[in-house]
Amino acid sequence: MVPRGTQKICLPYSPTKTLSVKSILSAMNLDKFEKGPREIFNAEIQKDLLVLEEQEGSVNFKFGVLYAKDGQLTDDEMFSNGEYWCVSAAYILSREG
After folding, report:
1. pTM of this prediction?
2. What is the pLDDT of residues 56-76, one digit of tens each?
């Protein structure tokens, strides 16, 4: 059965260790694919994927990064971390490109 609805996936954070694509996919139970993810170099495909993301992504899916302090388990607790978000977001976005 395919899971539906919101899913909370917690990934470990270490300032000295980068998570691999394989470990992230494993945490989301997506590591069973025959072929792994690959970077797309074709500009037309990149443009088409961006259009698809703009048309469909915001309608059907929401992705984001939320900073969680030790012991925080609920969304309300995590959303109350406003003072940490700027630093965390800047770090994460700098790592992701």
Report:
1. 0.31
2. 655 555 566 777 788 888 878
